[in-house]
Amino acid sequence: LARSxxxxxxxxxxxxxxxxxxxxxDNNDNNAAVGQEAGALEALVQLTGSQNExxxxxxxxxxWNLSFDDRNREAIAAVGGVEALVALVQQCLNASEGLQERxxxxxWxxxxxxxxx
Length: 117
Description:
There is one protein chain. By secondary structure, the protein is mainly α. The protein has one domain: Leucine-rich Repeat Variant. It has seven helices and no strands. α2 (29-36) runs parallel beside α5 (70-78) and α4 (53-66) packs parallel to α7 (97-111). It starts with 7 loop residues before the first helix and ends in a 6-residue tail after the last helix. This is Protein ARABIDILLO 1. It holds the Pfam family Arm. ARM repeats lie at residues 39-81, 80-117. It comes from Zea mays.
């Protein structure tokens, strides 16, 4: 969807859906499953560069939720997630509090992995 759809509302809802599926908890197999879905992480990383703030916010939120799984942390980094989130944080100083929180939270989540430091 992220590669073929140009409708910001649909992209925002798709990213929000992935974020909800990956919502962390004590035992959430969905988190790992979403991260292992072919192209999901790449698409979310790509969406952090959207011109639409809502799309960026939901993509960062999904990456934050996904970063609670060890395998996802390294996979997100492998597809350029750290660089994309750093760029997003640098650009979002004038953005909404929600976007700032999700972008910073995703970076924090990725930083837990020794491989990403």
